[in-house]
Amino acid sequence: MNWETVIGLEVHTQLTTKSKIFSGASTAFGAEPNTITRAHLEEDAGKSLHEDFAGMTGIDLNRAGTPLLEIVSEPDMRSAKEAVAYAKALHTLVTWIGTCDGNMQEGSFRCDANVSVRRPGEPLGTRREIKNLNSFRFLEQAINYEVRWQIEQIEDGHKIQQATVLFDPDTGETRMMRTKEDAHDYRYFPDPDLLPVKLEEDWIEQIRSTMPELPGAMCERFQRDYGLSVYDAAGLTSQREAAAFFTDTLALAGEANAKLVANWVQGELSASLNREEKSIAEAPIAPAQLAGLIKRIADGTLSNKLAKQVFEVMWTEGGEVDAIIEAKGLKQMSDSGEVERIIDEVLAANAKSVEEFRAGKEKAFNALVGQVMKATKGKANPSQVNELLKNKLG
Amino acid sequence: MSLSLDDVKRIAHLARIRVSAEEVGQTRDRLNGIFELIAEMQAVDTTGVAPMAHARDVFQRLRPDVVTEPDRRAAYQAIAPQTENGLYLVPKVIE
Amino acid sequence: MAHSTLKQLADLLATGKTSSVELSQDYLGRITRQNPGLNAFITVDAERTLAEARAADAVRAAGQAGPLTGVPIAHKDIFCAEGWLTTCGSKMLHNFVSPYDAHVISQFKAAGMPTLGKTNMDEFAMGSSNETSFYGPVKNPWDTARVPGGSSGGSAACVAAGLAPAATGTDTGGSIRQPAALCGITGLKPTYGVVSRYGMIAFASSLDQAGPMAQTAEDCGLLLNVMAGFDPRDSTSLEREKEDYARDLAEPHDLIKPLAGLRIGLPKEFFGAGLTGDTAKAVQDAIAQFKSSALPRSKSACPTPGLSVAAYYVIAPAEASSNLSRFDGVRYGYRTHDYADLTDMYEKTRAEGFGAEVKRRILIGTYVLSHGYYDAYYIQAQKLRRLIAQDFAEAYKHCDVILGPTAPTTAFKLGEKADDPVQMYLSDIYTIAVNLAGLPGMSLPCGFDALGLPIGLQLIGDYFSEARMLNVAHQYQLATDWHLQLSPIMRMETEYKALDALLSVPEAGKKGTMV
C-alpha cells in the first residue's frame, strides 16, 4: 500500500537584536523557501528544564522576550529530505540577510515539523507537531520516525490524534507532549499594549535599498558572469561570508581567474577551515593573500603543488605570497638556461636511460623527467622540462 | 443568551480558575445578570462601523536596538514563590 | 493644617514656616489616629516616609527645591513603588514588595514629594465602592457607614479626611471621578496617554489612566504637572511637548464673566431617570452658576449611558482576562499550598488569590473572547466604542466642555450593592463613556444632599484640554465654597490640632508636633 507524507515546517529564527522585543532589556545570556505562507514576529516565552529540582520543573525566563521571526510553510513537502532542503535554504537566507545568527545548537534557528500521512489523492491526514528540532539531522530523523510511526498506527487500525510531540535524539523516537484538544479554545484579541505597526513606504524602500543580493540571484550571476559550474556557484553562495570571500578575492585576482579562485575557496581554504573547525570569518588567510597566491599560479610562478605549500605556510605562519616564495625558495624554475644545465647533467649521469629511450622505450623518458624534477627539487615546470628534454633527445 | 453550568465550568477551566461545585450555581446566576446588562448592546446596528481597539489612532513607536535596562534578575527572583539556580520552579510539567 | 491645600503647604515650606519632616509627621499622626476607623491605607511606613522627608528638606536646604518639594502625598496601592508592599488590594499580591518604581512614583520622587503610604482600593481596581478590597472596605469620612466609592476609594477618603493633602488615583471607568464625587474632593482623569502606565498594575490597558485627587482644581493642576510626561516604557505614552497644566488657572478672560466665551454642552442623556433628586438639583444649580458667567448652554448629544456600560463590561473584562493571566503563582505573589500538578496549581492559586468580583470579570472576559462569541461580543463592543468616540467628537464641534453629574447617587451604604454586581456597575454610568473615548474628565464638589453627603459635578473636556478644564474648575471653585467644606473626620482633626496647640507648651526651639 502506498502512503504519501505531508510536511509543513514552522521555523523560529531568533532575531539578531541586542535588546528584547518590548523592553530595553538585553537578549544576551548565557525545498525552496517559496513555499512560505506567512511570517510573524513573536517573543520567546522561555523554556522548561526538566532536570531534577526535587521533583519540580525549572522555568528559565532569561530568554523570555527575545524576538523571534516564525516562518510558516505550506504543507508542501513530501519527504524528510525535502524538508531538510527547505530548512537549509531558509537557514542560508536568514543568516545571509543577517536577521538571525543561525546558531542551531543555541536554538537561534529551530524547526517545528507538522507531519501527517495519507493515501495519495486523499484529504490531509491528522497531523502531529514535532517541536524544537535544533539540527538538520534531527529534523530528518524525527520526520522519518514519525512517518513510520503514523503509518504503523493507521495500518494497525488506530487513529492519529492531533498532538504535540518531542523528539528524543538518544532513542531516535518521538513522544507525546500534549494533545491539542484545547486548540480551538485559544483566545486572540488585539492586545491594547501592542499597537499596530505602521510601515511607511519610504522606510520599506530604504530597507529594500540596503538589502544584499540574495543567494539565489548571486548563484545565477556567478554562473553567468564567471562561467562557474552550478556546483561551485551553489557552494560559494551557501554562506554569505564564503561568497564575500570569493568576490573579495576575485576583485583582486582578476575575473579571468574566477574558476581558479572558486577552486581554491571551495577546495583548500574550505578543507583547512573544516579541519580546524573554523568559520570563514576566523580564517587566518585574507582575500588579499589568497588573491596574491592565485596570481602567482596564473602567471606560472607556482605549480599547483608549490602553491599548496605556499598556502600551508600562509595558513600557519602568515605572510604574502612573494615573501614566502622567496624565503622558502619555492619559486618554480622558469629560467630555461638553468633548467637546460640540469637536464644536461641528468642526461650525462643517466646514459642507460637515454639509450633505452632511443631504443624506443617510452618509459625511459618519464624516468628522465622524474630525475630532472628531483634534481630541481620540484621547482621546474614539468611541461617545460618535457619540451626541453624532447628537443635534446630529438 | 444564558450560560449553563457546563458553560461556567468550561470558561473557568479556560481562565484557570477553580470554581467549586458549591460556587458554580451562584457564579452562573451572577454572570447571567451581567450578560443581561451587556445584551443591550446587541440592539445597536453597527453595520459598516470599524471596530476600535484604542480610543485614539495610535501606532507602535519604533526604538533603536539598544540595551537600556540593567540586569535585575536577582531582585525579581527574590520575590518569587520558589526558585533555584536562577530558575522559577513549578510542579513537574512532563513525567 | 488638616485642610491645607498643596498650594498652601508649598508656601509654608518655601517660607521656612515648616519642614517636610514636620509636615509628614503631622500627616502620619493623623493617619495613626484616623486610619483604624477609615481603613484608607493598606500600608504605612513612617520610617520610609520620614527618610524621604529628610531628603526633601536637604534638597530645599541646598536651594534645589521645586514647586512641591517636601509636600507629602499618598499613592494608590496600584502603583509599584520600590521597597513598598504593593498589593493592588488583592490577596494575590499580599506579599509583593515591588522591586521597581512605577513612572508615576519616580516622577513624584524626582519632585521631592515623600510617600505617606499606599492607599486602599477595590481589588485590581475592579469595583465602585472599595468593598472588593482584600484588605476590607474603606469608610467614607462624611459618614463611616457609607462607601467612599471606588476603585480609588482609599485615596479619595484619605484626602477628604485630611490624612493626606493629595493622592494619586487611577481611572478605568470612573475610578478617580466617582470616589472624588462621593468623598467631596476634586479628581482629574487626564486624556489617555498623558500619564505613563508603566508600573501601574494593569486592569484594562486601553482604558486605564492615572490622575491626581486633591481638594482643589488648582492642586490637581500642580500634581498633573508632576505626573504627566512621555515615558518610552509605556507603548501608549504620548510624545507631547511638556505643558504647564496650571498655566490658565487664574486666567479670568473677563473679571465679571471669567468664563465668557466658554461653550457648555449639556447632554440630555446625563439627566435621565437614574439621577436622584438632590444630585439632579445640585448639578442643575452648578450649571446655572456657570450660565451666569458663560455662554448659554449648547445642546449636545452624548452616547446613551446604558450602551457605554454594556460596551465597557465587554471590553474591560476582555482586557483584564488577558492582563490578569500573569498572576499564576510562578513569578511573584500568592501561590496555593497544596497542588497535584501545574494546572491544579494555577487553578487553585487563582481561585484562592482572587476575590469574587475579579473572578467574575475574568470569566466574562474569557467568555467574550472565546471562539464563537468573539464577534457578537468583543467586536460589537469595539464598534460601539467607535460610535461613542464619534458622538463625543461631534459634540466638541459645538462646545468646549460637557457638564453633568459624576455619579447617579451620593455615597451609598456599605453592603447596599455588594451582592448586586449590576447595580454596582451602574454607579459608573456617567463616567464610563469618557474612558471608552479616551477623553479627560474631572469631578468637583457642587453641593450636598439632604443627608449632608457631597455631590460631584462632572466636567468632560476634549482631548488634551486639561489646562482649560482646570481653568473652568478653578473659576468655579473661586466662586463657590463646596470644596472647602470639611468632612466630620477632617473637622475633628482640625479641632484636634487646635486642642493640641492649646495644650502643648512648646519647649524653646522645639516645635510641638504630636505623632
Q: In summary, what is this structure?
A:
The complex is a heterotrimer of chains A (394), B (95) and C (515). Chain B is mainly α and 95 residues long.
The CATH class assignment of the domain at 5-43 in chain B is: Mainly Alpha
What is the domain tally of chain C?
Answer: 1
* Number of E-state strands of chain C: 11
Protein structure class of chain B: mainly alpha
Helix content of chain B: 25-40%
Largest sheet of chain C: 8 strands, mixed
- Discrete helix count of chain C: 16
3D architecture notes:
The complex is a heterotrimer of chains A (394), B (95) and C (515). With 394 residues, chain A is an alpha+beta fold. Helix content of chain A is 46%, strand content 17%. A seven-stranded mixed beta sheet of chain A has the order 2-5-1-6-7-8-9, with helices on one face. A two-stranded antiparallel ribbon of chain A has the order 3-4. In chain A, helix 11 crosses helix 14 and helix 13 packs across helix 14. In chain B, strands 1-2 form a two-stranded antiparallel ribbon. The longest helix of chain B has 19 residues, at 21-39. Chain B starts with a helix and ends with a strand. Helices cover 39% and strands 11% of the residues of chain C. Chain C has helices at 6-14, 20-38, 46-61, 103-110, 153-160, 177-183, 217-227, 277-293, 305-323, 342-353, 356-368, 374-395, 421-425, 432-437, 466-479, 488-503; strands at 41-43, 73-76, 115-119, 166-171, 186-189, 209-214, 264-267, 298-300, 401-405, 441-448, 454-461. Chain C has an eight-stranded mixed beta sheet. In chain C, strands 1-3-2 form a three-stranded mixed beta sheet, sandwiched between helices. In chain C, strand 2, helix 4 and strand 3 (115-119) form a beta-alpha-beta unit. In chain C, helix 2 runs antiparallel to helix 3, helix 5 (153-160) runs parallel beside helix 6 and helix 9 crosses helix 12. Chains in contact: A-B, A-C, B-C. Chains B and C meet through helix 1, helix 2, helix 3 and strand 2 of B and helix 9, helix 10, helix 11, helix 12 and helix 13 of C.
